[in-house]
Design goal:
It is a single chain. The protein is of the alpha/beta class. The chain has seven helices and five strands; from the N terminus they run H-H-H-H-H-E-E-H-E-H-E-E. The chain has a five-stranded mixed sheet, with helices on both faces. The longest helix has 18 residues.
Length: about 190
């Protein structure tokens, strides 16, 4: 029940969707309920005994089709997001030394995941991006206007705070910034 209420009462639509991992806590109960329900239905409908396997097959196929788009669709969809901007961001994230610690947006974490230390910005106003950078001891801070966390300080203020905290702009292009701690070797 706690998982059920957590998901059903959430204001976030992804928490209520079976297309995301948030409902995984309900899976075992749903599977058990479906299995027991199918058995009970089969016991009540005597004519269904002869077509039990066929009915189970239909339910299985319907369940697979209802589980969402295939991974092939997701790969095809991602190909539509290829752009020079994406390539620029990936190359800049790849240029950061693997031993360096990085603080960045949630969207960039998978692209910078080949390192020992990576932290993501808070979605809240506190701690600020500069406070987080100092707290985590980040060597690099990577941020972009299009992925800005709405509850945090504006990009311009965060940039100013980071410069005051001892970071310097290593790269900037149209709202995409790579800042590194002053004194780091290139």
């Amino acid at each position: 029940l706690p998982v059920f209420f957590q998901n059903i009462l959430s204001e976030n639509p992804t928490m209520r969707s079976f297309g995301f991992h948030y409902t995984i806590g309900l899976s075992a109960f749903l599977f058990t309920a479906a299995f027991l329900g199918f058995e009970r239905l089969a016991a009540r409908l005597k004519w269904s005994h002869s077509g039990k396997r066929r009915a189970a097959g239909v339910i299985l196929v319907a369940g697979i089709l209802a589980s969402g788009p295939s991974e092939y669709y997701r790969v095809w969809e991602i190909q539509g997001h290829l752009s020079p901007r994406r390539d620029l961001i990936r190359s800049r994230l790849g240029a950061i030394p693997p031993e360096a610690s990085v603080l960045t947006h949630n969207n960039f974490v998978p692209q910078a995941g080949n390192r020992r230390q990576i932290q993501q910005f808070s979605y809240l106003a506190a701690p600020s991006k500069a406070e987080s950078a100092l707290l985590f001891g980040a060597d690099y801070v990577v941020m972009a206007r299009e992925f800005w966390e709405p509850q945090s300080d504006p990009l311009e203020k965060s940039l100013s705070d980071l410069l005051d905290a001892g970071y310097q702009i290593d790269f900037e292009a149209d709202g995409f910034y790579v800042l590194k701690k002053t004194g780091l070797n290139p």
